[in-house]
Amino acid sequence: MKTNAVILAAGEGKRMKSDKPKALCEVLFKPMLSWVLSACEGAGIDKTCIVAGYHAEMIQERFGADYPVCLQTQRLGTGHAAMMARDFLQQGGAEHTIVLYGDAPLIDAQTIRDALAQHVECGNAVTVISAELDDPYGYGRIIRTGAEIDRIVEQKDASEEERAVHEVNSGVYWFRTADLLRALDCLRCDNAQGEYYLTDTIAILKGMGLRAGVFRAAGSDVILGANDRKGLLELNEIARRRVIERHLNNGVEFLGTDGVIIGRDVEIGAGTTILPGTILRGKTVVGKDCVLGPNSLVEDAEIGDGCIVNASQIYQSKLHNDVKMGPFVHIRPNSELCDNVKIGDFVEVKNSVVGERTAIAHLTYVGDSDVGKHVNFGCGVVTVNYDGAKKSRTVIGDEAFIGCNTNLVAPVKVGDGAYTAAGSTITKNVPDHALAIERGEMRIKEGYALRKLKR
Fold first, then answer.
1. Which end of the chain is more exposed for a tag (fewer CB within 10 A), N or C?
2. Contact 120/213 with Cβ under 8 angstroms?
């Protein structure tokens, strides 16, 4: 059975006060539209298209390589938006189509699958996904006749009896594709707003003698969207709690959750402790028995078992096992720290490989370098990797000792077991087991300071 999805993402979202479409506003660092697309993929939807309007070029640039984008040049209601996907629906050959909103990110794959199963089993032309709310104010009420839907009544049009109903419309619908196309042909805009409403398809299909059903979602979050920054903050908080609860159930420890934000795609091993102020983003994978934080940021990185990351930032890099770093360490992209590396305060590593049990204690920059095992860096070492025109690499052999305030001017190699004297500027290769001293001659001018002060 082939299935389609049509995601309506044409909204401008004026109350967001943003220069991008509302569906591109982010929840846990990902556009709301990405959440909906992921739910469709997780539910096994065969083909998905996006209906874009306001700044459609932004959605096209972000998602057009993977999903067809249909343009809604005039925003004349939800039914009109679905009409823009007509060619996609006619050409896809799918038996059933789900219509969703790109700014309702908490819809989940399980709800989509379960609603489809009921939709098919009952032989419905349309199945509305609903939710039960403690406070349904402002939502369209689902008025049932048994298992079938009779109608959807908006808050302003509802009677006192209808307002007492707590089951509300999520705005997500499964259709038999052929019936959706027939209903779209029958939509009219003879209302005060002059718009085409997707909700009208229910009455149209029932008028054709077809069956309209309701699937009640297990949770109420599936209906939640955001129309302004306050609503977006609430979505972020709900999603943040959900993610933390998932990790708690998997054996991750939190001593407190103040300032802890974890992206939806982050993986964390059992026994790891996340301390306050820690932010984990992107495709980050964290191993077992680590301690991350306080106040650390990790993005698109891989962290092995037993690592400690204290008040540090790591981007697009890999830490092997038992690496310890911090505070105030910056690991920039394309770096790799091997087992038992120790990085102290105010150290920056960029595009470099650091071998096992190497120690970089403090106040050091290691950029574009290949560092061996058991190397010791003194305080204030700099690999001088950029000459203003090109970047070059530094190579440091196993068990080398780099003295304090050494400048290694790349391209340069320090051999295995070699030493550099403190304060040296190394511009030539250092042989294995040698000591390199490269300092200017010290000159002393007696009485200079007294003469300067007198002047």
1. C
2. no
**Pure H helices in 187-228:** 200-207
Q: Are 23 and 102 in contact (CB under 8 A)?
A: yes
* Consecutive H or E run containing 104: none
Give the model's confidence band at 297: pLDDT under 50 very low, under 70 low, under 90 confident, else very high: very high
User: Which is more confident, 339 or 441?
Assistant: 339
Annotated catalytic residues are 362
Contact 133, 166 (CB under 8 A): yes
Distance CA 226, CA 231 (A): 5
Confidence at residue 436, expressed as pLDDT on a 0 to 100 scale: 97
Pairing outcome for strands 148-153 and 342-343: unpaired
Residue type, 334: N
Q: Residue 31 in contact with residue 24, Cβ under 8 Å?
A: yes
How many other C-beta atoms are found inside a 10 Å radius of the C-beta of residue 398?
17
CA atoms within 13 A on the CB side of 196: 19
CATH class of the domain defined by 229-436: mainly beta
Q: Using CA atoms, how far apart are residues 375 and 359, in angstroms rounded to an integer?
A: 6
Q: How far apart are CA 353 and CA 39, in angstroms?
A: 38
Whether the CB-CB separation of 169 and 128 falls below 8 Å is answered with yes
User: What is the mean pLDDT of the segment spanning 223-252?
Assistant: 95
Please, are residues 385 and 368 in contact by the beta-carbon 8 Å criterion? yes
Angle (nearest 5°) at CA 53 between 195 and 182: 50
Strand ranges (E), 185-338: 212-216, 253-254, 261-262, 267-268, 273-274, 279-281, 285-286, 291-292, 297-299, 302-303, 308-309, 313-315, 318-319, 324-325, 329-331, 336-337
Three-state SS annotation for 337-365? ECCCCEECCCEEEECCEECCCCEECCCEE
Per residue in 303-326, is it b (16+ CB within 10 Å) or e — as a string?
bbbbbbbbbbbbbbbbbbbbbbbb
Asked if omega into 327 is within 30° of 0 (cis), the reply is yes
Annotated domain spans of the chain: 3-223, 229-436
Cα–Cα distance for residue pair 268/262, rounded to 1 Å: 10
pLDDT for 405 equals 97
Per-residue b or e along 337-371, where b marks 16 or more CB atoms closer than 10 Å to that residue's CB: bbbbbbbbbbbbbbbbbbbbbbbbbbbbbbbbbeb
Q: Which residues, including other chains, have CB under 8 Å from residue 451's CB and lie 6 or more apart? A: none
| CATH class of the structural domain 3-223 | alpha beta
